[in-house]
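Posting for a labmate who doesn't have an account.
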Amino acid sequence: MAHSFALVTGASSGIGEAFARLLPRETDLLLTGRDEARLAALRDELGAPAVKHRRVEILAADLASESGRAALIERAASLPIDLLINNAGLGRFGALADNPAEAERAMVEVNVLAPLLLTRALLPGMLQRARAGGRRAGVIVLASTAGFAPLPYLTTYAATKAFDLFFAEGLAGELKREPIDVLALCPGATRTNFQERAGGLRLSRDRMASAEQVAREGLAMLGRKSVHVVGGGNRFYTAFTRFAPRGPLRDATRSYMRRMTKPRKA
């Protein structure tokens, strides 16, 4: 499925960078993230002279701030975006009472407000162009397996990802008869720097999916499904959460998260 112009948030590293690299050369790009130097390097690589006629634009913006979201919406609204990849995300391990209030707020700003406001701002134009051009547009929302069940010690992050999951599913229902595809992409633990930035989760990176695998499956499943969970073990887990009693499920995840986030002994 070819798109002419894609916006990828959180594109300076991890899954967002993988999306940018995997999109076909025929797709122009608007890449955003907080690290301007990394964005510039990616722009120079993906928009190199060898890639004929490809347009690659960047915008350094902090989606945890109102000004950052407004700047991105203004830039994106001026472009013929027909693929929106809401990838940017923040996480923070630890008990809610122990985490800085600013960090908890930033999770909501980036994981909930940013995809909501960006999608709302761009959707009318995307629909109009898709109808007029006889093409299909697309929206990918990075949800997570964390959004399928309560996760004590990752409480706010899991709640924001539950929002992302249901937001994408609901939007897919609203747009079922329109020329636009919506996908909630739900990876589990992935080999990115998320774990370190979030405070450290004791997981073996060998068992994690790669960022490229997550992005590749997301692009492949857009237009085929409205929800895609990456990995067989993750699909089993998310299916189990739908039938498990909530109290025992919460207690089990609490015990697991306490073990996985407990600081290692010196």
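Reply:
Got it, the structure tokens are right above this. Strands lie at 5-8, 28-33, 56-60, 83-86, 137-142, 180-186, 190-191, 209-210, 227-229.
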